[in-house]
Amino acid sequence: MLIKRAADIKSSEITPESVWLRRRDFIRGAAAGVALAGLPRLSFAEDSGRRALDFTPAADLANDAFRTDEPLTPLQHVTHYNNFYEFGTQKGDPARYAGRLTTEPWTVKVTGEVERPGTYALEDLLRGIPLEERIYRLRCVEAWSMVIPWVGFPLATLLQRLRPTSRAKYVSFQTVMRRSEMRGQRSGTALIDWPYVEGLRIDEAAHPLTILAVGLYGKELPNQNGAPLRLVVPWKYGFKSVKSIVRITLQERQPRTSWNQLAPHEYGFYANVNPEVDHPRWSQARERRLPNTLFNPNFIDTVLFNGYGEQVASLYSGMDLRRYY
Ligand SMILES: Nc1nc2c(c(=O)[nH]1)N[C@H]1C(S)=C(S)[C@@H](COP(=O)(O)O)O[C@H]1N2
Ligand SMILES: [Mo]
Question: Is any atom of ligand 1 closer than 6 Å to the C-beta of 242?
């Protein structure tokens, strides 16, 4: 297991007085004109409503895999070309309808094989955890991709705080169930057995590339991207990166996952990006990098583990990646 022991944690991860998510406090600071470290790229005027976050820019982080030099996908595309079937199956549906979702207050229930189970207010769960920017490729199983500057923190930091027991072999995550605010949960066209659930093996969950995101482009997550808390696992197909999380369960057995349950021959539990293992209905060898146009389709080769092989391949040594797709 790769749960970090106390001795392995960098002091920057546990400094309680360092920067952290201050959801309500921030408004006051902003109103008073307080300058924020690391406020990037976008000014307040560009999209009002979402609050700016205080975080360490990816450029200042020690691990090169935490950023990429590839051009960022513009905010407009990141927020208007989405998969969030709770709001509908069309790419524009989440932007159109996710504004209805109430994200404050937000609680996360932690259950199963942990020493500190409970129902936590989001701000209590995250208090004191420093935020970092992570510029990651996101590769959807549908063969399109983006480059997104997330703001979040390693899932390992939270797991460490919750103290998994020795029986915890997997982590499962559940999206909010809110029929009144999520029209896709009422319609049944998506065929998903709500709520959306996903899961990771615990060593995948504790890997330093695996983050929980609370923001993108320097501000709180737009609802369509999974506000207020979503998983990001950059070497796996996008469907693993479950949005709007309300429950985290540590467990001994491999969890049920939504897409695998819906179409087990098409979507596996592992879902590692792999150009050599095609989806039964299309090739995974290439991907369309957004933004693209009719005249510039912008197809690029897909890379094993979405280009993060150096960091994650050892998690799967000896495993047949065709069998465990
Ligand atoms: N709850 C939930 N999480 C979800 C999905 C979803 O439909 N519901 N879609 C997944 C898929 S298929 C992808 S590609 C990513 C898309 O994330 P983005 O819209 O922030 O780019 O979210 C994933 N997380
Ligand atoms: Mo996806």
Answer: yes
